[in-house]
Amino acid sequence: MPVIDTSQDDTSFTVVTEFDAPVERVWELWADARQLERWWGPPGYPATFTRHDFTVPGRSVYWMPGDGDVHPNYAAWSFVDIQPPNALEVDNGFADETGEPVPGFPWNRFSVRLEADGPRTRMTVRVAFGSAAELERMLGYGMREGFLAALSQTDAILAEG
After folding, report:
1. How many angstroms separate the CA atoms of 38 and 51, rounded?
2. With contact defined as beta carbons under 8 Å apart, do 24 and 158 qualify?
């Protein structure tokens, strides 16, 4: 899964990757909670999805092991738009175990676009925040590096078929 490009503006960052798999197969990485658990979270911090209602206006709730102090363990997604198998928009942020937002932590919106490139798939993920300060805060926690590390786990899942 080569990273083709990364970029950043005042309130967002974008990662473009390419996969040796068709769009429909890459889509399953997002749609299937069991596959998602295997890559959503950097190595050593696997996500466990306790809820994955992959519909609009569905919600997902997951937790990752962590120190529980600097980084709350639970997070949630609120699905804004789903266009199988090419597009997905999700509001994402730290939450309690029921999926309610944790006060004081900004939520972000990530937009996923999958495009066929012959037998390969190009995935563009844009993560947008409400302000430059929110973006900088989350980048300070290592969000971009964690996301890139998480993505590095997808090739093994896709290779299984």
Report:
1. 15
2. no
**Whether the Cβ atoms of residue 6 and residue 14 lie closer than 8 Å to each other:** yes
Class of domain 3-159: alpha beta
Residue 39 tokens, joined = 């890559």
pLDDT by residue for the chain (161 residues), tens only, comes to 688 999 999 999 999 999 999 999 999 999 999 999 999 988 888 899 999 999 999 999 999 887 655 555 899 999 999 999 999 999 999 999 999 999 988 899 999 999 999 999 999 999 999 999 999 999 998 899 999 999 999 999 999 97
Residues in the chain: 161
Residue at token pair 């990364």: 6
User: 150 to each of 36, 47, 66, 153, how far by Cα in Å?
Assistant: 10, 10, 15, 6
